[in-house]
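Sample intake sheet
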Amino acid sequence: MFYNFRQMAKADEVLVQEVKGGSLDAFDELFHRYSKRLWSFTNGMIKSAEESEEIVQDVFLKIWEGRDKLDPTASFNSFIFTIAKNQVLNVFRKRVNERKYLHQLALPTSEKSYTEDQVIYRELSIISSTAINSLPPKRRMIFRMSREQGMTYDEIARSMGISKKTVENQMTMALKMLRSYLQQHAEIAISLLIVVMMSLH
């Protein structure tokens, strides 16, 4: 899982183009370049080494199976972390569903609702979006670039023309505001940790 950078390492776009053409060597190099960061990213959220390892494997499997649709000109970093984020969301949905299922087993049949999960997921999505949208514009942009696009603090700083320290400070304040918001919705805060419990990468 660990990657030793080579003196003349190829750029991501070159490797992606080669993977698109069916190169297993290029695919292997991308895996070793990103797998450790991807694992840390997912494990920081779901706190499960085994599930994180599975997600990393699934992400790269999706990339290989869909290699003919890869866009070498797009940011591979953002692309791969977006896939990972969606996989993590699936894990959280599964956990919520399992807890609800166990709870439903203890209820009389008349109290069970077929659409209850749909309602809960819709509410989670609304509250999550509301929390993020409550951030000041610049802070919200930095948060989305980090958490939704998988960009590093250095990449965000270069993209926005600001210092890495400014990015760190903005993220610290963003997370503080989001945690405060979610504390007002304690009954679903655990399910929304996906938004605020992402590790640095």
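Comment: The radius of gyration is 19 Å. The CA atoms of residues 81 and 150 lie 5 Å apart.
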